[in-house]
Amino acid sequence: MPVPIIDLFAGPGGLGEGFASLQGHKRQPFFEIALSIEKDAVAHRTLTLRAVFRRLRGTKDVKHYYSYIRGEIDEAAFRRIPAVASAFEHAAAEARCLELGKSDEASIDREIRAALKGQETWVLIGGPPCQAYSLAGRSRRANDKDFHKDEKHFLYREYLRIIQVHKPTIFVMENVKGLLSSKHSGDPMFEKIIADLSMPTEGLEYEIRSFTKKGDGSSLEPTDYLIHSERHGIPQSRHRVILLGVRKGLDMPQHQLLAPVARPVTVKQAIDDLPRIRSKLSRGDSVEAWRKAVQAAPSYVKGWRTENESVMIGTMRAFAAAATSTTTGGAFISRGYRRPKKPTELQQWLHDRSLGGVCQHEARAHMASDLARYLFSASFAHLWGYCPRLDVFPPKLLPDHINVHVDRESEAIPFKDRFRVQCRNEPSTTVVAHIAKDGHYYIHYDPSQCRSLTVREAARLQTFPDNYVFAGNRTEQYTQVGNAVPPLLAHKLAKIVRSLLNEMRRRRQAGDAVQKRPAGSVPRNLPEQLPVLAEAG
């Protein structure tokens, strides 16, 4: 029987996807999401659809899911199919649209108990909302006198309350790097959270461990809980605090640590096989108007007054001439599947040959002046291998924005990275919810496409499988992607949790065997006699 998972503050389901995809004995799921709770209605729709997919996967009826996400049938027709209707009924019980801290606690507790079905061994996962801890959020509210009253400081207490009441065997809690330095009324938040989670209530204690360093809360430094995703095969420099809580008194061994990869996975390795598309013009879009805007971009560099001016103009002209894409993408792009001879770990994780194409790969519309900035930034990165900041932009390309000005005394330009190209031979910068705003921080490295990243490209950098579809409009899709935990990273964390639970079972069964053994008898090969779930996958 799979180990139940309760997923709090689930977002679109990145953390849950990593756990739910892990297999055990006879390639059956080792974990099963018993209940996921998310307050945002659109993210909840994404969770529901993914729960339907998991229910249909491995059956002949999964073909209907593919037909739906390809746009071959509409949602009404999809839901009318008996097997799909049954899957939606199951998903409605699994994925719940509730707000922790505001929804009735007693009803939430009843749902958790019903989902667990009396199983004592289970895992709690989730990431309380991070706006109050993030460095960006604190910067924006530096002069806000009511910031210390923000309820988001204490949403972890809702997570803590579930631990106090339901006593999970293991919990995994994710949050932003800013949590390590966040203070509330002058007191460090991280120390308080560790103390609360270590002893949630009298008689219930947890070791708060790190996934990357041996020890527990008494010996580890705050930074030991920080996971650098790019060191573990994720094509993104995403740094997050992730806590591993292990209940005391259950004979839990020391766990395996998250293994680093030999080389970081780059943006190019993650997205380069996706179809080439062009951006749109926000006004009067057509292929001809778009190309005209792109071809006009090199003229903005004149007057740059650097020794590289002519080289840059020549490079931009060459890429502008190569800007021959006519399609702007779409909700689904049909194409054949070619399996790589030696697929990488990431390719094996992302690709789905049954999909028959690419979902949610559609370019945004941009102003002509922004196309010039995109072409300049991507051409600069192509030539010199790094992203230019605004203090090296040609004067004609500086945006007319309140945050872009030259201080007369220091001649310094704030927000220098307002336009950031994602360099092809490096992991991307952190994909955050701000990607929903304008895309300026997420410029594609290919100058001839002259655009920001699509939802699918952002999802790939976050390691969502290609068959993972996000509900809502495009802005809402970007927001969900940016708020998620990378599923492939979560999958690797799940492997560590699986090994802990398997070792716990082995020790329990060995202890039971010793207690039942007649005095003086010592069975041979005791470990082989103990059935445990195989650690496949």
TrEMBL record:
Catalytic activity, reaction form: a 2'-deoxycytidine in DNA + S-adenosyl-L-methionine = a 5-methyl-2'-deoxycytidine in DNA + S-adenosyl-L-homocysteine + H(+)
Record-listed E.C. numbers: 2.1.1.37
GO terms of molecular function: DNA (cytosine-5-)-methyltransferase activity; DNA binding
Record keywords, A-Z: Methyltransferase, Restriction system, S-adenosyl-L-methionine, Transferase
Active site: 130
SUPFAM superfamilies named among the record's database cross-references: S-adenosyl-L-methionine-dependent methyltransferases (SSF53335)
Top-level taxon of the source organism: Bacteria
Enzyme class label: transferase
The keyword S-adenosyl-L-methionine is annotated on this UniProt entry: yes
Gene Ontology biological process terms in this record: DNA restriction-modification system; methylation; negative regulation of gene expression via chromosomal CpG island methylation
NCBIfam families (alphabetical): dcm
Family to which this protein belongs: Belongs to the class I-like SAM-binding methyltransferase superfamily. C5-methyltransferase family.
Record-given protein name: DNA (cytosine-5-)-methyltransferase
Native source organism of the sequence: Pseudomonas bharatica CSV86
